[in-house]
Amino acid sequence: MKIGFAGLGVMGEPMCRNILTKSGAPVQILDLNPAPVERLVALGAVPVESIAEMAKTADIIFLSLPGGLQVEQVISGAGGILENANPGLTVVDTSTLSVGLTRRLAAALSERDIAFADAPVARTRQAAEDGTLLTMVGSDLDVFNRIRPFLSYTSSEVLHCGPIGCGQLSKVLNNMILFENIVALSEALAVCKAAGMDPRRLFETLAKGSADSFALRNHGMKALVPQDFPENTFPINYAMKDMSCALELADELGIELQGAKLAWSLMERARESGNGARYFPILSQEISSSEPAS
Questions:
Q1: Residues 261-283: pLDDT tens digits?
Q2: Where is the 6-phosphogluconate dehydrogenase NADP-binding domain (predicted)?
Q3: Can you identify the CATH homologous superfamily of domain 169-288?
Q4: pLDDT class for 128, splitting at 50, 70, 90?
Q5: Which candidate in 2, 22, 171, 222 is catalytic?
Q6: Do residues 44 and 74 touch, judged by C-beta distance below 8 A?
Q7: 111-123 as b/e, with b when 16 or more CB fall inside 10 Å?
Q8: What does DSSP assign to residue 211?
């Protein structure tokens, strides 16, 4: 089984490395940045010059790209997978993009007898390093069973969520719920501080009750309480990309997402304040800034 991996960024490089070192399969790699290519070549990966070259020789291609624009270009653009793949190729997209685009690309690939799975990932860069990601897969069962052994090298949990698009649906709704949780925690934080209570004591108390959540214990305790919002850690700009996918789908379905729209408006304000590259819980500062003066 010949593997291709295109996109060796923050998540893609460690995912590819885990597949390369654990599977024993030959792995071709492609990225515009030479640094991760050089690191993986040192471990035995084979660099290629183009996605066309990879599509002609690989049995499974994994994509880990910034968003829908890049995935669409790699698949259906000039010199892309559609133009060059041999029938029987399987494409696994671990990026995050809209459900609609995912299904359109899958349909176009199917016409060329190319199988497709949407398999976005969740959890942190460290989880990618450790091979303990959560991967949510949308595909038919035959494709899922074909790719699961390789995904298991990158993830401690590989879940079949349903047919094409259901992996992306699970990912964007997961993130939508997370972002809305951060809004609720930020509102609690603003009230807590204005009323004179220690925010850490509040969150420690909430963590022992029915308000406990992953968002509280991680984003709340580690970012909101210390007000620590570094760059290069899932920024507002990335969060807005994911949230836009959820809002776009809801609009298509005629569903009003009031909580999601509130989170979106706070993200917009954070970006307009110059914080688009900062860690996304910085949206909490937009709630604090709206407090009336004492």
A1: 999 999 999 999 999 999 999 99
A2: 2-162
A3: N-(1-d-carboxylethyl)-l-norvaline Dehydrogenase; domain 2 (1.10.1040.10)
A4: very high
A5: 171
A6: no
A7: eeebbbbbbbbbb
A8: T
